[in-house]
Amino acid sequence: MSTRPRASALRLVMAQINLCVGDVPGNVSRVIACATRARDELSADLIVFPELTLTGYPPEDLLLRPALHEMVSEGLDRLCAEVQGIHLLVGHPEQTPAGRFNSASVIYQGEMVACCRKRHLPNYNVFDEKRYFVAGDGFCVAKVAGIHIGVTICEDIWTPEPARAAADAGAQLLVNLNASPFHTGKSNEREAVVAERVGETDCPVVYVNLAGGQDELVFDGESFVLDRHAATAVRAPACEEGLYPVDFAPGDSGIEVLPGEVSARADEEASIYKVLVLGVRDYIEKNRFSGAIIGLSGGIDSALTLAIAVDAIGADRVQAVMMPSRYTAEMSLEDARAEAEALGVAYQEISIEPPFNSFLDVLSDALAGTQPDATEENIQARCRGVILMALSNKQGRILLTTGNKSEMSVGYATLYGDMAGGFAPIKDVPKLLVYRLSEYRNSIAPVIPRRVIERPPSAELAPDQKDEDSLPPYEFLDPVLEGYIEQDLGVRELIALGFEAEMVRRVATLVDRNEYKRRQAPPGIRISKRAFGRDRRYPITSGFLNAQLRRNGK
To answer: Which residues bind L-glutamine (predicted)?
Structure first.
């Protein structure tokens, strides 16, 4: 049993756990197990779980199925029946005659003693809550161990009204349940916003966040507590499940937080790498794949993807396949072998020359009189896609694609070739960040050869091919893409920032023209504020870019 400080009037446990969307009975069992441990081993008065605990987040259109709500009702009944001696605070959808609410209930000794209904329903970026829920009051107040606790849910802490209403209703401590997905810089944003609420209410705030991957989203945890002075009193580690106790005691001016463990923040590269590993692991495990297959080219993208996969599920469950062609450099073969050996994965070489030649023979009459171009290059990529998908089907392993955000943005990828696969770990990672993440991974243990990091990138689909034959240098391309995609800057604005006009027009044209490719790409992990997929929903058929260019007189 955890020793509780004598001064503690209330011990609260933050349950930063990884849930499975839709598995209501399994999630309920997790809640019961965590509550039992918090009560018996940690001497807790209250355990707080994330937003929509019982369904997982985001349940999306599962919320439209009556069977889900039947399971939620059964789950709440089970919690009331099976958990005694500790207060539970759990998130769940609530179907009522007045509508469907995103709710959180306080359960104690078999009864639901208080219920909070989320007021502010986010409907931007990856969020679509107005499709599913109606707005509630935004707070409730419950008494636990003599302390009045105000409860709010996720988005409601980002605006002043719900927290202030809870404080006006007598709350001495605020608790916020969250399912807040990662993007770069998000941790600082959360603590800054919560600090504003502390200043407005003079109440400490407990912020409990979900941990785990769900399709494109990764919830990074980093649950925390700010004291009445807006100082961080407790912070849970990122991307890790756990039960984290926090002690509170009455002070001269209000409820005080007793000092606890404050996990240090990792730098940007380390944070992103941990998120990528967690996202890959959960996608593979929650979808019950036996392992992963990766096409290893000897280049930096596939090398980084291989390292992420190994760190996610272990070397024994990862297979690397090198598929050389007539254009593959010897150094690429050497580096691919070195990467596989350094990471301890099964490695195989399968030449694409036989199928490539067969396709050329089959198409010889149809292509007669034409010069080699992207057609022949794409045939090579598609030969590789067929081989990798055959191995994936046979072994029950997921094929991880290796394309980065820079390539996906401008369509520098082959449909049914290198885009073939089930999940895209670095889909939202720009090329320059790929280099930084590779350096970070090598700082842990050198697994990516220096030559892979230092040599000019190439698809090796034609003689002496380099990426810069088809694309602007990544040092210029990535900032333009960030402005156009993530900041919604137009051609005129980007040129005004000093980017070369012709390059901006070319890049914008490539981005807009290749929306059809991205619609057919596998899902991938979101790390930016604006990722392709649920974050950025652009029409495939659109005259908007041409209208921009005409407006600019070009």
So the answer is: 124, 180, 186
